[in-house]
Amino acid sequence: MRLYHEHDAPEIPDADFDQLVRELRELEAAHPEFAAPDSVAEQVGGTPAGIFSPVVHEVPMMSLDNAFDLDELRGWSERLERRLGEPINAYVCELKFDGLALSIRYEDGKLVRAATRGDGTTGEDVTHSVSTIADVPHALTDEVPIPRVVEVRGEAYMRRSTFNRLNEAQAAAGLKEYVNPRNAAAGSIRQKDAEAARSRGISFWPYQLGQVVDGPELAAHSNTFEFLTSIGFGVNEHARVVDNIDGVVDFISEFQNRRHDLDYEFDGIVIKADDLETQRVLGSTARAPRWAIAYKMPPEERSTKLIDIPISIGTNGSATPYALLEPVFVGGVTVTNATLHNQDQVAAKDVRPGDIVVVRRAGDVIPEVVGPVLSERDPDSEPWVFPNDCPVCERPLVRPEGEARHRCPYADCPAQVRGRIEHFAQRNAMDIEHFGERTVDLLVTAGLITDVGDVFLLDPEELSQFEGFGETSIENFRAGLEASRTRPLGNLIFALAIPHVGSTNGKVLAKAFGSLDGVASATADEIAAVDGIGPVIADSVAEWFASDNGQAIVEKLHRGGVQPVAPEVSTLEQTLVGKSIVVSGGLANYGRSDAKTAITDRGGKAPGSVSKSTFALVVGNDPGASKVTKAEDLGVPILDEAGFETLLRTGDLPT
Fold first, then answer.
1. pLDDT tens across 76-133, in order?
2. Whole-number Cα distances in Å, 617 to 491, 585, 644, 647, 650
3. How many CA atoms, within 13 angstroms, populate the side-chain half-sphere of residue 271?
4. Which candidate in 1, 151, 390, 647 could, as Cys together with 210 as Cys, close a disulfide (CB 3.0–4.6 Å)?
5. Is 596 designated active site?
6. CB of 88 within 8 A of CB of 278?
7. Pairing state between β 100-107 and 311-313
């Protein structure tokens, strides 16, 4: 109590302190005769603690990079300004709502589809549930011209008051209570019965536009809030435009103090460059826009006992220590394991088996051990020592020079073999039905498969030697293998577990090279030249395919009849590669989206505004005056529709 109030240096998390106060109050209520007049319970109050159709997003719903402290945030801002060569004169700050991201599509003003984010490219069709949300209009207002297509993106959430009433009703009915508002909201949306969303009072905040066809010309992200309001949506009143990064820091400070004051949960602040042209210039990486970042507020923390520090062996041999914990409820889930990263991190934190440790669910995703509660440490405890040998194959671990992590260097280590094959077969990789962890373990233990290349060379009849695999199971297994032979190329590249290559980069490489052999034969320089692929990934990909192991696996995949489906590639002559063409106004032979497609199908880019990098501005009827003026100021050529046709055909400006 003294540490908490007087010294501002508590040894346990606030949540643990609150729990102790609650326990004291319960004891005092049960035994009022023992309650002290100056009880601490009176001094401090407690603190509130694939069944749907797939929907392909026309514009990917990307993730956001995170900043966990103000230094990281300022570093992000400095990187943007270095890239631009000038200061950013306006940022938009928005609360990062703790809910379920949605894309809601309107055509000719009518709601036609709602989908979850999914993997960013493909989400789940949840139109039936979303159409019951009172905040989501079925038809847009006609006070302004309505775009032919407008996609509204935002967050479905449950208000704290609604959540509390829901759990009160659950408890009264003798049903299980929900863990937190976010899970309750997401679970309600992902029900086949739309009544779940209707009856539980889900709410929605829009925060961005996705695909827009024949919409207004907007200059700034903040203008989208005005537009959303004009078509019938309510927007969050706390979004604010500030002049510089210091204004962002002030906004964060303000709302960090108000985190529990509002009737809905938010776990951070999203910061975006306001000017849309600036956003287009900054662009995106393979997974996230450069012009936006999420500042994550300090996550919940709890303390528990550290039982042991085992070592896990990853798919590529990484030997990672992790904390085996007494179960603790933190960040909305019960945590039993937490990352300890590597030997240096364990030593720096000086956590030892038997310690009481503080556990943080960092970023609300990956639990980690913050450090020990030293006052609770056994005086006879000894520092933990990293083991010399792999806990699975019992051969020596190594720590490569310059790396923080130990590795098991033996590719035939059973843990690595199993890990690579399980990764290969998982749903967002090769999606091999009836090829789960148990089956993989049986096949590897029996020596029937030694790497992912063996998967499609396996005779399913071999499974008959194992208990539980009858004729039907074997036939299902055979069908699963056959179906996965024609998975998308991007999924196959990801499935190979090449270091640093995630699912997004797999798709990028598939589109760039068109075939497995195309990627395999590419040099590191050729791979690095692909937009969104950096030198580290390029070197890793080139090294993997050049290795004896990589070449052997590719050869086995060919022999096994694997024929991955390449992304659709335009057959038109690529006359506009490297050129940025802006279209403004109505063209006789092209709708606005048709004109942009004509450009991108020929390798060009079709941004919505003119900049110094614009190759040409194409104007039709009633073009945007600001675009024409800017093109004239920058000396950008201005073409009519006939000139546009020449440009598409030849790649050159008409003479």
1. 999 999 999 999 999 999 999 988 999 999 999 999 999 999 888 899 999 999 999 9
2. 38, 10, 9, 11, 16
3. 28
4. 151
5. no
6. yes
7. unpaired
